[in-house]
Amino acid sequence: SEVNEGDLVKYIQDDVETESLIALWNFNGSTRDESGYNNDGNDGTHTAQVNEGDDGTEYTKDNQVVLKIEGGTKFVTIPNKTHLLYGVSPQPNVLDFSGMFDIFLRFENEGAPDNNEFVFSKRDATKGIEIGYNTNHNVVVKITSSSTTSTITGTTDTEGKMPLVRVRRNGAGLIQLFVDGTEEGTAITNTTDLTVTSNGFFGADYQGNGVGDDLHIAMIRIYKDNLSDDDAFTLLTHFRHSSTIKFEGEVWKIED
What we know:
mainly beta
């Protein structure tokens, strides 16, 4: 498309489309959100170890750092973020789960988990999303709406592995779980707005109860639309970026 002097230009370097990207955590030395929306995890408050080597299954060739959560009291809070729009009240949430969404996670769990340990949670008492695993190390997705929770339970034993977990809601409200590209569990249909203004968590449920075993998180991505099958396959087969390059600025001068 045409670019003129004075235009505002935004660019994010990634292997897949970024137009619908609203959060990206690579956990390379910090819990900084690299999508440009600053959904930064508050690792200064909680004591989860960042920039730790993952001594389990290797996920990247050269960079094995992960968010390392152990012992039940270590987790990371994700303070709620809103867009700053003039004349709009209330300000809309950045992490918007009102319509379609696509969530991708890479994590490894080891040990003897309690029933339902959560990798990512963004919910309150009446609605929201939680993604984790059960005592059999199967991936678990909990969707809460009108204070009622529905669960999708995977079938793969993920202990000591680093699978690509995908949770997708399409335009018809069908919510599905995929583990390494294969659908697992029984999909559920929910068309309600699952957006909440309470804080989210890495390594804890919505009440801040941390995981009791060893959890290593390598990547979480959230999109407000559905990625194409080709892009999803790219995420399945490619390594994560050690960091994501992005810039935003005004075009100052264009020369022939």
